[in-house]
Amino acid sequence: MATLTEELADADYNPAMFELLKTIDDPAQLRALDRRQLHRLAEELRAFVLDSVAKTGGHLSSNLGTVELAIALHKVFETPEDRIVWDVGHQTYPHKILTGRRDAMAHLRMLGGISGFPRRSESAYDTFGTAHSSTSISAALGMAVAAKAKGEARKCVAVIGDGAMSAGMAFEAMNNAGAMDVDLLVILNDNEMSISPPVGALTNYLARLLSGRMYSTARRASEHVLKRVGVWELARRTEEHVKGMVTPSTLFEEFGFNYIGPIDGHDLDTLIATLTNIRKLKGPQFLHIVTRKGQGYKLAEEDPIAYHGPSKFDPAEGIKQPAAPAKPTYSQVFGDWLCDMAAAEPRLMAITPAMREGSGMVKYSELFPGRYFDVGIAEQHAVTFAAGLACEDLRPVVAIYSTFLQRGYDQLIHDVAIQNLPVTLALDRGGLVGGDGATHNGAFDFAYLRTVPNLTVMAPADAAECRRMLTTAVRLGSPAAVRYPRGAALGEAGSALDALEVGRAEVRRRGRRVAILAFGAMLKPALEAAEALDATAANMRFVKPLDRELVRELAAGHELVVTVEEHQVMGGAGSAVCEALAELGLQKRVLLLGLPDRFIDHGDPAKLLSSVGLDAEGIERAVRAVIAE
Ligand SMILES: Cc1ncc(C[n+]2csc(CCOP(=O)(O)OP(=O)(O)O)c2C)c(N)n1
């Protein structure tokens, strides 16, 4: 008999299929279900996840993999009193659906709708806000220590994927937790995938753990634990049995955890029984479960990467390739440039912290496998690794999202900039990112980059300029960042590899009274506004070094200077212009347009930009308001 998910995929979907799920608005109701009903619930939940993600877009593969886990956790643990922290949180849709947000899934990641990640403000069941990876063990440990300090008996659980587990922060937390006497359970959700195939020694280790001798030993051990040993007996003999039987001891035991597993994370009965037993154990516990990305939906099982974060699609047909090739994104412009530049510059090496697809590096990774490094979810390491390459006269390019470079900031200052090493940062997702929301916006990079000595900071206004800036960065011989936005690139990228004059802006339109200084992608709306206002408009290109000569000239020849950037006003490129005016001793009325001093949440990027006045009308309106004063 076909599962509900298969029926959905066969277009046999009928809404009655969610009958049981519709009765669950709170995990307490789930806890009252019997075994047969729980199995039915899992089936409905999986189909519901597919149905709703197909309608809204969002994360799919990872969520199809956590259906049984979410049910088992809410069945066994007294949520929200017991704390569950989901790492990254992109796999929490089943959890959201089971905790009162089933109907809200219709507006997932939309303006005013629920977030695609856990949010403390959204639900008591979202115990910790996540989205950047590898924070769950630290946070859950903090909660476990707090529970102990306050004499509260609650349990704390971190759920972390094998990709997220590879990051330094996860190991810092393991190192800390394993030596502590607290009730903490870490569940490793091992689906043998990050977004792309995972990399590194830990991955190899986990693969060995799942196959070969250790797997069979471990499986026998957990079967034994489940079937033969009573709960209290288990508690008493955990040390000997669990540790003893899974020898040779696992890495996680060396960290001071009780290692249990691996068990099948789609086997609901085993999951519930195992968690029920573990819940009674004291001290740091580590449960290794094995799941499959895309479980139950054939297309996602076969291509978990394509279904990691799809846009809307028809479940019966799957993701369709657009008839005409879509306009290239800035990530693709970067990826094409990377291939061309690598062919011309043998010293070029490219690094990604686990974002090959998102950063547009698939083609490069195939063409230049020896000069391509996916270092795992390890932004700090990525930056310092690049510094090491640069010490040896290579020309590393770190492709990294603006929001994730926040993780590597000290490395950027201490390892790259102080030593003035020629590292290029290809900074993707600068500005608002849309559906992923506040955790992923690249709203702070101008501020955190322009304050670092030796660093050149550029922001292209279109595709061709993006290439030229990247070329400029690689040829510079000192650290440089090129910051570009998410989404379709403006204009044709071309194939040239020519550089720009450093620190030189360009005036794109001459007008009267008002001079608009635009940074990066804001040039387009700024030009439109300048047209309507008959203002002067300049493409500033460099946030650092700023074209001070042009700032001087434009300030002298206009009554009002306006800066526009898709970045926090505070500390951003406009602030740099104000600093330049102060240094030049020029007093001028300046209007600073950019993002306000608050976190901008998820939603359609164009609507979000318009809501903060960063479209042509908004710019024009703001300027007219100042002129009217
Ligand atoms: C610090 C950081 N870097 C990169 C990402 C982008 N990212 C989101 S999910 C993901 C893969 C996570 O893999 P895993 O933990 O195994 O979870 P799975 O999707 O396989 O369930 C990555 C790299 C992130 N969220 N945070």
Characteristic key phrases:
alpha/beta; single chain; globular; 27 helices; 629 residues; binds thiamine diphosphate
Tell me what the structure shows:
With 629 residues, the chain is of the alpha/beta class. Helices cover 42% and strands 14% of the residues. The strands form three sheets. Strands 7-6-8-9-11-10-15 form a seven-stranded mixed beta sheet, with helices on both faces. The longest helix has 22 residues, at 35-56. 53% of the residues are buried. The structure holds thiamine diphosphate.
Structure described in brief:
By secondary structure, the protein is α/β, with parallel strands linked by helices.
The average pLDDT is: 93
Percent of sequence in beta strands: 5-15%
SS-derived structural category:
alpha/beta
- Overall 3D geometry? globular
Q: How much helical structure, as a percent, in the residues?
A: 40-55%
Number of helices: 27
Low-confidence stretches: 228-247
Number of strands: 17
Give a short account of the largest sheet: 7 strands, mixed
Attached small molecules? thiamine diphosphate
Strand order of the largest sheet: 7-6-8-9-11-10-15
In whole angstroms, how far apart are the ends? 73 Å
Task: Write down the Rg.
Answer: 26 Å
Lay out the secondary structure:
Layout: H1 4-9, H2 27-31, H3 35-56, H4 61-64, H5 67-76, E1 83-86, H6 93-101, H7 136-149, E2 156-161, H8 162-165, H9 168-177, E3 184-190, H10 201-210, H11 212-227, H12 231-245, H13 251-254, E4 258-264, H14 268-279, E5 285-290, H15 298-302, H16 330-344, E6 348-352, H17 362-367, E7 372-374, H18 379-391, E8 395-401, H19 402-405, H20 409-417, E9 424-428, H21 445-450, E10 456-458, H22 463-476, E11 480-483, E12 506-509, E13 514-518, H23 523-533, E14 536-539, E15 542-544, H24 548-557, E16 560-568, H25 573-584, E17 589-595, H26 605-611, H27 616-628
Parallel strand pairs: 1-2, 2-3, 3-5, 4-5, 6-7, 6-8, 8-9, 9-11, 10-11, 13-14, 13-16, 16-17
Antiparallel strand pairs: 10-15, 12-14
The structure holds thiamine diphosphate.
